Amino acid sequence: MPTNASAAAHALTDVAASDSTLRRFLHGLPGVDAVGLEGRAASLGTRSIKTTAKAYAIDLAISMVDLTTLEGADTPGKVRALGAKAVHPDPTDRTTPPTAAVCVYPDMVATAKEAVAGSTVKVASVATAFPAGRAPIAVKLADVREAVSAGADEIDMVIDRGAFLAGNYMKVYDEIVAVKEACGAARLKVIFETGELSTYDNIRRASWLGMLGGADFIKTSTGKVAVNATPANTLLMLEAVRDFRAQTGIQVGVKPAGGIRTTKDAVKFLVLVNETAGEDWLDNHWFRFGASSLLNDLLMQRQKLATGRYSGPDYVTVD
Amino acid sequence: MSDATRLSVFKTYKLYVGGKFPRSESGRVYEVTDSKGKWLANAPLSSRKDARDAVVAARKAFGGWSGATAYNRGQILYRVAEMLEGRREQYVREVADAEGLSKSKAAAQVDAAIDRWVWYAGWTDKIAQVVGGGNPVAGPYFNLSSPEPTGVVAVLAPQESSFLGLVSVLAPVIATGNTAIVVASEKSPLPALSLGEVLATSDLPGGVVNVLSGRTAEIATPLAAHQDVNAIDLAGADDVLAKELEIAAADNLKRVLRPQPVDYAVTPGIDRMTAFLETKTVWHPTGSLGASGSSY
Questions:
Q1: Do A314 and B226 touch (CB under 8 A)?
Q2: Mutation target vs B (from A263, A299, A302, A310; most B CBs, 10 A cutoff)
Q3: Domain membership flag for residue B293
Q4: Which intervals hold domain Aldehyde dehydrogenase (chain B) (predicted)?
Q5: How many angstroms separate the Cα of B274 from the Cα of each of A237, B62, B123?
Q6: Which pLDDT belongs to residue B289?
Q7: Where are the beta strands (DSSP E) in B125-245?
Q8: Nearest chain A Cα to B223, which residue?
Q9: Is residue A97 classed as helix, strand or coil in its secondary structure?
Q10: Model confidence at B273: pLDDT above 60
């Protein structure tokens, strides 16, 4: 990176010097043109991706899935089954790529780690009192440390939306920095819960706040509220990571999560990635889908491309 | 304003899929004419993607419909007959146009179709007594057989009998708890598309019946090969097409009902219902075999 980029990076480190500089920076970000943003996301969604491009997109999307189970009723058996599925998504066709990761609660990390041992599949764990994030900081950090020591490769944290909405940006920032430190070598994904942030301006501010705090990934949502990942809010976050890299030289990943169920939707997101952030992000190191039912639809479409016949839910696992 | 100056209001015929009335995903339509070649309406020309969507809708509806009590299914089917009766005039006109019949002959067809629907409505809670029941076995067990619906059934409606034939192949499929994708008569799809409007207002859950219009061969081919379709009724296929479809259907062991000459005017018997039923048999211990020696 040229020197003026590192100068800019240096300028950004000063941003978090105090509450007032941080607020000034975040409120100084340009406002979002909501109609333009939604229009752009919708128009990119009309691209027709067929035949070989579709086959490429399906395999890429499969390799980007964070196969997720975040239920109170998760059992070790279910987590093992999920791990097996992540390693070989379609046991009848070993050319199917493995998924990027499995995503579980912290107490299931050890089980998940065993289930995916010897493969490229990573284990991600939600932490910091997911999904609400309403716990004292000490508890949140302990949550993170437990998950990391159990072997998690990636940590998905939630920001304190209450503090963010109250304008207490410094508190959110400090938490992200502290969690990042507790992560050690694990990659940190920061969840904003965009459905609770009310405005696109807030999503842009949260994106920058997360990246300033040291996030390796910014992630839309927990999947536990009514509005989850949408093309528009993902597009906005993709713009933010693109601009952040232009200013600082640091590349940050994006993970839309929740509500992406069909291959068609997934391909639309990949188009957004390619057209906004660029090809550098078309890799599971930089872009992920947080999903559970999406994988089955991707597998059915993959079977359809391979055989020419429509497949059905009888030919993929029930999870 | 006098009648002479009133502009005619044309009806847009649409598909019926998942309880909604979409146009074909392909955006295509084709001209439907009466028996003399006069234009009647444009009908949607469905593509294989419409067929795929219909299968998804039918699969989604299967749990609820097959799980509904037979009594409830009977009530809903009877309600369909009531709604058909209210639209009798419309069907008489559509059938007369489609098949080139006089008004009275068309009326006889429509009446027979409505009566047939009532007939099948009555069968929903009786078929189990006829083809199921207790089996005598050599052991202290109850052994019970009960007929279960096969699943998602693709139905190619008869080409010639646009309404009575349609009802005669559709009603037996759904009466027993299957869900259906109907491919309407290619030449005369209008009565079938209008039937969708009746089904939508009869308490029949969306997706139980899905009606597609278009080229039979184009829609039937992906349906016959579809891995999530459990059975196919080939009533509307000619010999060459039927053979092709049967080969495609063999891949996931679909139940296939071959086309056969049928007189739709006579009482049909239960063959079309049993064609899409499977028998489940359970063994159950009779209970205490106490000191009394009684098996009950």
A1: no
A2: A310
A3: no
A4: 25-256
A5: 57, 18, 12
A6: 59
A7: 133-134, 141-149, 152-156, 179-183, 209-212, 231-233
A8: A310
A9: coil
A10: yes
Smallest CA–CA distance, residue B10 to chain A, in Å, is 32
- Asked if residue B114 is part of any domain, the answer here is yes
Query: Any residues with CB less than 8 A from the CB of A192 and at least 6 apart, and which?
Result: A159, A161, A203, A206, A207, A210, A218, A219, A220, A221
| Tally of domains within chain A | 1
Whether pLDDT at B294 is above 90: no
Tally A–B CB contacts below 8 A: 27
What whole-number distance in Å separates Cα of residue A68 and Cα of residue A86?
10
This model of the complex carries an ipTM of 0.81
Residues 6+ apart with CB under 8 A from A224: A70, A131, A258
Q: Concatenated DSSP letters for A138-196?
A: HHHHHHHHHHHHTT-SEEEEE--HHHHHTT-HHHHHHHHHHHHHHHTTSEEEEE--GGG
Does some domain include residue B34? yes
Evaluate if residue A35 carries a pLDDT over 50.
Answer: yes
- Joined together, the tokens standing for residue B193 give 């598309």
Q: Distance from B259 to chain A by nearest Cα, in Å?
A: 24
In a domain, residue B253? The reply is yes
Which residues of A does the annotation mark as catalytic? 156, 219, 255
DSSP state of A249: S
CATH of the domain at B178: 3.40.605.10
Q: How many domains are contained in chain B? A: 1
Domain of residue A43, residue span: 3-315
